[in-house]
Amino acid sequence: MTRSAVVVVAGAACLAATAGSAGAIINGTKATEAYPFMASIPISAPAMGLTDGVCGAALIAPQWVVTAAHCLDMEIGSIPKGTVRVGSDRRTSGGEVRGIAQAVLHPRYSQHTPNRNDIALIRLDRPVGQRPVPIAAQPGRPGTPTRIIGFGVTVAEHDPARWKMSPRLNELDTRRGAKSECGPGFAGGTRLCTVSRVPKAMACNGDSGSPQLRRGRGDRWELIGVTSGPGAKSPSCAEGPGLYTNVPAYAEWISRTMRTYS
């Protein structure tokens, strides 16, 4: 099966968790408000010693969530629990739990440093009652205030067997970085450079696929990105910057895919 294929799931799917992928939030804080659109995808990766992993996602329609394609990359060898939890600030309880009916990776997704076209959609087996987050028309200019949220590790650790995912949702205030603030070749038209507004803080392992948000009309959150990986070669997630797939850049593909598989 190729990475660009549609995955039809009967209670299971392959969801990636790689040591080099950004995921959790280092030096963030506990969520200060409700994020009904936040979703979590429990995974394991036995070959790496990871038994209690997670990827994040964002609810964009009653039966659809968007995440990072590398969270669904079968070639990496991660094993999911086959469910998505939506609308809870706790990783293993609350909210609404649904099965994964289909997963669609972007047809031009590929693993690189950085990943390319790192975006995927999951169709839930039944709609949920939580309120979806709208996709922003544009991600905003460099300097735009943003926020990232996720259930990933809060202490950086290179060994996946030692990763401890957060039981509670964490958040971190960030900003859109200029292309030059990420490593050469990392940021671009479909990849957003993201910079923490506090020292030594950024997404890390377990936050892959989790949303990056900005304020839109009526001060409501809008989705601009999903966690893809580090934004530069760095010895630690906390050193930053982070790299986020530019969701507005894929709005047409998202709409077309949801129409095709709904």
Structure report:
This protein is mainly β and about 260 residues long. The chain folds into two domains: about 5-20 and about 35-130 and about 250-260, Trypsin-like serine proteases (Thrombin, subunit H, Beta Barrel), CATH 2.40.10; about 145-250, Trypsin-like serine proteases (Thrombin, subunit H, Beta Barrel). It contains one helix and 17 strands. It has one helix at about 250-260; strands at about 5-10, 25, 30, 40-45, 50-60, 65, 80, 85, 95-105, 120-125, 145-150, 170-175, 190-195, 200-205, 210-215, 220-230, 240-245. It has a six-stranded antiparallel beta barrel with strand order 4-5-6-10-9-8.
Summarize the structure in short.
This protein has 262 residues and is mainly beta.
Question: Which helices and strands, and how do they pair?
Answer:
Elements: E1 6-8, E2 25-26, E3 29-30, E4 38-45, E5 50-61, E6 64-67, E7 79-80, E8 83-86, E9 96-105, E10 120-124, E11 145-150, E12 170-176, E13 191-196, E14 202-203, E15 211-215, E16 221-230, E17 242-246, H1 251-261
Antiparallel strand pairs: 1-9, 2-14, 3-12, 4-5, 4-7, 4-8, 5-6, 6-10, 8-9, 9-10, 11-12, 11-15, 12-13, 13-17, 15-16, 16-17
